[in-house]
Amino acid sequence: MANYNRNFELSISDVELIEESLRAHGRELCAMRRALSDENPAHLESIKVIEADQSATEDLLGRLHNQKVFYRPRKSVYIGG
Predict the structure, then answer these.
(1) Taking a C-beta distance cutoff of 8 angstroms, is the pair 57, 25 a contact?
(2) How far apart are CA 41 and CA 69, in angstroms?
(3) Which helix (H) or strand (E) holds 3?
(4) Does 31 score more than 80 pLDDT?
(5) What is the pTM of this model?
(6) Rounded mean pLDDT of the chain?
(7) Which of 38, 65, 64 is nearest to 51 (CA)?
(8) Helices (H), 4-81
(9) How far apart are CA 69 and CA 12, in angstroms?
(10) What pLDDT score does 81 carry?
């Protein structure tokens, strides 16, 4: 049985491309969801699938964000904004 590769070598631009692709996919799902009506029973199953996909996409974006290490100066006062 094959093992999973647990070490990925991605550049910052690779991660940015992945994040932007996920955001574009999210916008596409949002447009699809807005096109469907909650009152139409035929659309209910499609809405559930779209919302589950939206949730999975947002969860993945959140996990990518949480793995980032943000710069914070050690010797000077940090001014956020």
Answers:
(1) yes
(2) 46
(3) none
(4) yes
(5) 0.74
(6) 88
(7) 38
(8) 12-35, 44-66
(9) 12
(10) 60
In angstroms, the CA 66 to CA 70 distance is: 10
DSSP 8-state symbol, 67: T
Q: Who contacts 64 (Cβ-Cβ below 8 Å, separation ≥6)? A: 15, 18, 19, 22
Mark 6-26 as b/e (b = at least 16 C-beta within 10 Å): eeeeeeeeeeeeeeeebeeee
> How confident is the model over 32-46, as a mean pLDDT?
88
Identify the three-state secondary structure at position 32.
Answer: helix
Tokens 């699938």, located at residue: 49
pLDDT of 69: 79
* Residue in this structure with the two tokens 């955001």, named with its chain if needed: 23
Instruction: Work out the pLDDT band at 30, boundaries 50, 70, 90.
Output: very high
d(CA 61, CA 23): 8
The structure tokens 């990518």 sit at 64
